[in-house]
Write a structure and sequence with these properties.
By secondary structure, the protein is α/β, with parallel strands linked by helices. It has five helices and eight strands, in the order H-E-H-E-E-H-E-H-E-E-E-H-E.
Length: 159
């Protein structure tokens, strides 16, 4: 693991290595906070960016992770239907408490708590995708199959 990574990015790299996956976290000088910034930074299609969005179930307040193609928006009605309960977008404090990361750098793994995860079916069409790695400057490249392994997510039409 590179000692040049920030502590949050190192935490993501360690979580990847613990799963015996071979993805490498990189930190860039420019921002990757938004999907568009991330796509421009690594020179990929906007759809290849994995947005990690945290929701909370309305009645039970369970955290839900939606991993969505950068070209798409979450359809909360569809997400509610696959989860089985109405959901709402989580605020920054809830996101940090559940994941251990701030909005703009939430990775698909390495969270403080396990949460039910749904993966946008559109991400499965790409050979390579890019996900946040703990900071608004860190990313890593992976395959959709690796995303399934690291998240145990359910592929669904949530956009």
């Amino acid at each position: 693991m590179s000692n040049n990574l920030s502590p949050s990015a190192q935490r993501v790299q360690l979580a990847i290595q613990e799963l015996d996956l071979h993805c490498e976290v990189i930190e860039l000088s420019g921002s990757t906070r938004t999907a568009l910034e991330a796509a421009e930074a690594v020179g990929c299609d906007l759809g290849q960016i994995v947005k990690s969005l945290v929701f909370a179930s309305v009645s039970s307040h369970q955290p839900i992770l939606a991993l969505v193609s950068g070209a798409n928006r979450v359809n909360e009605q569809r997400l509610s239907a696959v989860f089985g309960e109405p959901v709402m977008k989580a605020d920054g404090d809830f996101v940090r408490a559940q994941t251990g990361f701030a909005i703009g750098g939430v990775p698909p793994l390495g969270h403080t708590y396990q949460m039910k995860t749904f993966i946008d079916s559109d991400l499965m069409a790409f050979d390579r995708i890019w996900a946040a790695a703990g900071t608004p400057h860190a990313l890593f490249s992976l395959t959709p199959a690796e995303l399934l392994v690291m998240t145990h997510g359910e592929v669904a039409n949530i956009s």
